[in-house]
Amino acid sequence: MAVASALSIASLMVAQNPAVEVSVDAKAPATPFPHFWEQTFGSGRAILSLRDEYRQDIDAVHEATGFQSIRFHGIFNDEVGLYDPARKYTNPGQATQAVATDGIYNFSYVDQIYDGLLEHHVRPFVELSFMPKGLAADPNDFHIFWYHPNVSPPADYAKWDDMMSAFARHLIARYGIEEVSTWSFEVWNEPNLDFWDGKPKQATYWELYDHTAKALKAVNARIRVGGPSTAQAAWVSEFLQHCHDNNIPVDFASTHVYGNDDNVNVLHTDAKIPRDKMVPLAVAKVHKEILASPYPQMPLYFSEYNASYANEPNVTDSYFIGPWLATTISQVDGQVQAMSYWDFADVFEEQGVTRTPFYGGFGLIAEDRIQKPAFHAFAMLHKLGDQRIAVANDSILATKTKEGGLALALWNYLPPIGEGDKYTPEPSVVGENKTFEVEMKGLPSGSKVELWRVDGTHGNAIPAFDAMGRPQTPTREQLAELRKAGAASPPESLKLKNGKVTVSVPARGLVVLVAGPAL
Fold first, then answer.
1. Which of the residues 127, 190, 289, 304 is marked catalytic?
2. Strand pairing category for 31-32 and 387-389
3. What is the pLDDT of residues 163-189, one digit of tens each?
4. Of 519, 38, 66, 70, whose CA–CA distance to 326 is shortest?
5. Does the active-site annotation cover 119?
6. What is the mean pLDDT of residues 265-280?
7. Cis bond upstream, residue 343 (ω within 30)
8. How far apart are CA 490 and CA 370, in angstroms?
9. Average model confidence (pLDDT) for the chain?
């Protein structure tokens, strides 16, 4: 396919800016570029992992990104059934009797959940939440989420400690310490918001963390535990100081941020922060806090991030996410060990059962296995190498491949077409194209160049959904059509002319170029 033919008709109707000229040498000095943005993904709560569609979506995202672990809420929710002190059981030939103290925990669904992840080639990133009703200081302290997790502190920390110990012992007995020591155990979720009802919030969270970390480490010191798992990049400095001052075990720091988070809460400024700068600025803030802490080498995990924490169809369903993701990765590189995109698929029920495939869900894959532009953005960026070459342009990410070639991401970032929970149809003219003239040096002889795109007309099912009238419940035939419309576009083969290629990228489009001998 010729490059020009890949552009949308709408984008050809507008003038193009002067070309961006860049020269990249495959033999130039480079710095390590681990794929920190695709190691972990978030997901709907724990019990949803037993669904077939959830596991099919895992396979699709794993094939595209090779991701290593999944983080979800609610492994201690009552629907999982772990804490079960009142249960009766019957042994064959014996009368019904009360379960002994060691048998008050039922690991049946826990095992099915974690077995399922491992069978699909990903590990748990274990978020230790929420409170079993039978352990809660307030059994009726429910969060507003549709599935109503209990967010109360425990009534008795001795019983919480016992559950943590039993949980750790069981995981080690089932999977072995060599496996379990590769997992991360994160204490709770966003205790600075309404997911934790201890009062005062910070002091009572410290108490929860201290008990949890000590109980897990008492079972085996190789268990990796961390926190504070806060929203809005909060509390990390205070958390690390608390652990240091009180000799509390900690193996990593974790927090969250979203592109539309509040600038005052995250960065303590009245200045308006654009969506493409919020996550990088928050990461830089926490990175500096760690460097100034008693643990300057502490690993930093942003265990939730996305362009939006709300259901914004023109953000998380849109091809806008491609350049947003690329520019975010480019800016935070070197400051964070891992980031967990929230989340990998729209098998998700925080606001209730999904009513329609495209509502601004957080996932890479919409309901009924329809791939979104975000899916293709991650798949394309997975092709980048693991050594980064410095380039003096904020719309280019240049890397070396293991074969001695080059892999480049090029993008044309603009804010979303529409914002908020109502979908805004794409106008006839969406913005100016950006042209890149890329010189590639130092490539092996006979190198070829392939190009992948995600934009308004590549890897985007929304135009087909619009043409159907945006049905709330598409028919089986319409779903098949949407899956086809949302599939990745095939790569384009380009030829180097005097060592150069010219690429035009539509507004809010992302391109990945790979040049090398073995494509």
1. 190
2. antiparallel
3. 999 999 999 999 999 999 999 999 999
4. 38
5. no
6. 96
7. yes
8. 17
9. 93
User: Domain 35-383 classified CATH 3.20.20.80?
Assistant: yes
Radius of gyration of the chain from Cα atoms? 24
Q: Which CATH class is domain 1-33+390-519?
A: mainly beta
Answer yes or no: are the C-beta atoms of 68 and 122 closer than 8 Å: yes
Domain boundaries of the chain, sorted by first residue: 1-33+390-519, 35-383
What percent of the chain lies above the pLDDT cut of 70?
93
CA distance 55 to 345: 10
Distance from C-alpha of 354 to C-alpha of 362, rounded to nearest angstrom: 12
Half-sphere exposure (CA, 13 Å, Cβ side) for 264? 1
Q: What is the pLDDT of residues 183-224, one digit of tens each?
A: 999 999 999 999 999 999 999 999 999 999 999 999 999 999
Kindly report the backbone phi and psi dihedral angles of residue 439, in degrees, each rounded to the nearest multiple of 5, phi listed first.
Answer: -95, 130
Q: Which amino acid, residue 33?
A: F
Residue whose structure tokens are 């103290």? 101
C-alpha count within 13 angstroms, C-beta hemisphere, residue 263: 10
Contacts with 298 (C-beta within 8 Å, 6 or more apart), sequence order: 240, 250, 252, 253, 290
Phi, psi (rounded to 5 degrees) for 185: -110, 110
Residue in the block written with tokens 């720091």: 253
